[in-house]
Amino acid sequence: MSCNANSSEHASSHDDDLNLEFDEEENIEPCLAMDEVNQCSISNWYYLYDGKTNPQITPKRITILTKIIKLEDDFIEYLKQDGVVLPASVDTKKVVPNFESDSDEEREKYANSDEQDEENEVPEFTALQLQIADALDEFEEVFPKLNWSAPKDANWMLSESSLLRCKSIEDVFLVLKSSSFVTHDIQKAYNNCLDYKPENEIKRVLALRKWYDVNPSMEFRCFVKDRSLIGISQRDISNFYKFLVVDRESITEKLVTFWEKYIKNSFPLSQYTVDLYISRTGAVFIVDFNVFGPPTSPLLFNSFKSGHLSSDSKELVVNIVENNEGVMRPSCKMYSGVPSDFFSVENAQNLQEFIEKQQKLQQNEK
Fold it and tell me: Where are the stretches annotated Disordered (predicted)?
């Protein structure tokens, strides 16, 4: 085993790749099989490790408690539509247009369409809302995601500063409708597949995970190739944690032991990445699985196409941020997806304050 640190040179060369998952995906040469994408869907792997469905793998749950809801076609179509119009039975006061690709004419049309909006049909998803309500009753707070991606880019829409801490049905709908990551799961999940066939796509799901206050310093991405664990990277590459340098060997041993015991012989793919979390009690949990290659981020490894991840070596390499000079600073999009204009509004603690301040500014300009 070798334990490597990233350097400042490494950071600068890799920083542009941090948004690879969506910004540059159209330029990626297809290299995956549809089965790889499908097996990394939470609707497939969760039941291997929930402690109930496959007790021969593990008699205890070793992943985050989750409710998985199959999504109907009408809801998928709703998610594809521009704008953020919430269902009639939840609070529809927060209606935020999506002008990312709109022309000036479309913006003006929206600004003058209050009366027309009242006549538009408001969506209704009673069965889904009841299922979300049941999950909230059981978990109190949930972290939503689709098959592969969580709407982290829409976190700024919530009043909570904690990552995707949804306390209501409105919160869940709001982040799902505001997220480019969710749109990616619906429309581009198979873009990188060599053997794409529409009939082999799997059903889209909404996974509502019990929300926990997770310590980002203790989440790690493990890289598996030819059924060998060849790489481990610190997940939060934007911070230096001194204790990781001190405890690197013991942390590595804990992660390797967990992978060998629970994942190595149970996960169906020969190459993949898996995010693991070490809790405050020292227990290890599975957070997520992803494909081995784009659009998954290699984090502190340079690339899937060069360096250790592309070699035939089965030696385990562990990369962590060794010092403050090695910190990699993701763009604000990686943090929250909030528009840059939001950061210019002082003391705007949440979306409502932001909206109120903008309204006052507009009134003063009149």
Answer: 96-122
